[in-house]
Amino acid sequence: MKNENSIGFYLFQNLLHIISTGYKIDNKSVFSTFQNGVKEYRNFVFLQDAVIDNDIDWVSQVENSENVLAQSNQHYKNAIFSLLQVFPTDHQFWDYLAVEEKLYYSYITKEKYNNIRKPVLEISDFEEMSYNKHNLALVPIRGMDWLFEAKASYDDIKNIFTCIFNGMQMMDDIDDFAKDLTSGQWNLLHSDVRKIITDEHLVNDENLDRFEERIFYASGLCEKYSLYALNQYNNALINSEKLDFPDLKIWLTQIIEEVKESIKLVNKITQ
User: Fold this and answer.
1) Which DSSP state fits 190?
2) Whole-angstrom Cα distance, residue 217 to residue 221?
3) Of 57, 155, 162, 222, which has the fewest Cβ atoms less than 10 A away?
4) pLDDT 10s digits, 50-71
């Protein structure tokens, strides 16, 4: 979410704009205040993620008189201040946000646990983690549903974005396979590669570079999970056809073409 060059960053950065056409916005002031609250909360989550993932250059923080912790905290306070202007303290939005935050933080804890224990993972584990990792992106959508008249049900929109989350997370895991392996970031792909190594009694006798990565491609796992991502994106596009989200359809169409090109490249590598 925090990589400014990633497709996920673009989606979350422009989420309200992308979905706004699906609502009858009859109060521009309320929408603007809500936008600001969402922006501040998003920036808080991005910075928090960087701290949790240990992506902060602490030397630079001191030498440049910066403080990511204070900055993150300020974003959170700004977010709450704006959102309180839109939703009173007794509004169900706050209970909903609390539930989603608990789910999100449970994901972070589970992820750190998996990095240490490296358990066997299944596709169901991946989809659970994928949803929990991105669930806070649904909060603005639910908020819009409470604030304005929607042209589609929240559940329909949620289903679309759940597929998007799965597609994005899978392609991220594929792209970062080697990097995650080095950093100790455990996921479904690494679990499957380890299972192949164990089941087939594979040994890196020749000390091959990128041994696990070679297995990932040669075994067909990369193609298999790239096709999974493509299917998730296609499902999202099909389900979005009946909704008034033109920018989302354009974004999905572009992403689908990128995944198709990625699959072609994988096929060339493994032939």
Assistant:
1) H
2) 6
3) 155
4) 999 889 999 999 999 999 999 9
